[in-house]
Amino acid sequence: MKSASAVKNYRRPDARGHFGPYGGRFVPETLMSALFELEKEYAKARNDSQFQAEWKRVLTDYAGRPSPLFFAERASKELGFRLFLKREDLNHTGAHKINNVLGQVLLALRMGKKRIIAETGAGQHGLATATVCAKYGLECIVYMGEEDVHRQSANVYKMQLLGAKVVPVTSGSKTLKDAINETLRDWVTNVRTTFYVVGSVVGPHPYPMMVRDFQSIIGKEAKSQFFQRQKRLPDYLVACVGGGSNAIGLFYPFLKTKVAMIGVEAAGLGLSTNRHSATLTKGRPGVLHGSKSYLLQDSSGQVSPPHSISAGLDYPGVGPEHSFLKDSGRVEYVAVTDKKALEGFCFLSQTEGIIPALEPAHAIGYLLKARRRFAGCSVIFGLSGRGDKDMGIIQEHLKL
């Protein structure tokens, strides 16, 4: 891994929304004016003390921040290093997604847009969007792949209880990629009245930057909390990566330090098969959903269908900033299988009494697999969500 000096003067994206060769805007002409309007309004809101104060107020009073930084004592003894969990699973709605949704919905209100659309994979972004729309009295439509509707039925029911309309998407692989396609079609049709709340650090500029900024509250808190206890910074940060919002939220405030960072992707049934979602490990640059980034592609350049036991990692792309950080060497990206993720799921459940979502269970699986690497070190782990949403999948795979 290269040293932190590779990004010593890190300022990304540039004025045109690029992270090195990645990012940008690759969208139909009809969306360009909406993206320019959003970029202009976000630039104002970013420097507006009243907007920032209101966002921080609802993060505290409604979402429950700051989330704790928990020292996992029993797990640490088993692993041979000091493990600290950044507990995003304790946020209202059970995941880190609400940090970003509260920010984007406040922006929508500022822009006078009262119809909200969103895509969701594991359901946590859709649930957060439905929740915040209910709080502010906004119309909410959530697109979700039919396969994910089946895998995450509890979250679908919750979204409907909150008053959202959940639209199953039956095209393609019927997962997150296809849900994003359908949401973009809706946005093209209703762009004047509609705000698209993107759920990860993907899509055209300014979304990757905007979502990163809203999620960087995770890393800012973790940095301060760890320093207050240990009077130094941790040795490692570890987080799962699908689109990458949880990981970039934890990593971003540490980019100019010497802290090592590891993103863990889904290797599915194995990297030697074509049944995985390890975009940064096995993919190559291409364009998807409005930006350039690493993608899973076949020999003809067509997007390959991904696979993961986790609906939230079942995506063939990744945020463009992660692609830049991979090429720069600042962040290392690895992948673990469905089997290892299930081992990680059981390990954290049975050592700490914390049932994780299947997404962070992948990163726990990596910590188990590579425990010798971290011997004697301190590791902050991004626990991005809780596992009750995944119980149906767990029961199919684990017989107790």
Question: How would you sum up this structure, described in words?
Answer:
With 400 residues, the chain is α/β, with parallel strands linked by helices. The chain has 16 helices and 14 strands. The chain has helices at 29-46, 49-63, 73-79, 97-110, 124-136, 146-151, 153-161, 176-189, 207-215, 217-230, 245-251, 279-282, 320-328, 338-352, 358-369, 391-397, and strands at residues 18-19, 22-23, 69-71, 82-87, 115-120, 139-145, 165-169, 194-197, 236-240, 260-268, 284-288, 291-295, 332-337, 378-383. A six-stranded mixed β-sheet has the order 3-4-14-9-10-13, sandwiched between helices. A four-stranded parallel β-sheet has the order 7-6-5-8, sandwiched between helices. A two-stranded antiparallel sheet has the order 1-2. The model has no long low-confidence stretch (mean pLDDT 95).
Quick description:
This protein is α/β, with parallel strands linked by helices. 43% of the residues lie in helices and 18% in strands.
Q: Please, what is the oligomeric state?
A: single chain
Strand order of the largest sheet: 3-4-14-9-10-13
Q: What is the first-to-last residue Cα distance?
A: 41 Å
Q: Could you tell me the number of beta strands?
A: 14
What share of the residues does DSSP label as strand, in percent? 15-25%
Shape category:
globular
Radius of gyration: 19 Å
Write down the overall mean pLDDT: 95
Low-confidence stretches: none
Order of helices and strands: EEHHEHEHEHEHHEHEHHEHEHEEHEHHEH
What is the tally of helical segments? 16
Largest sheet: 6 strands, mixed
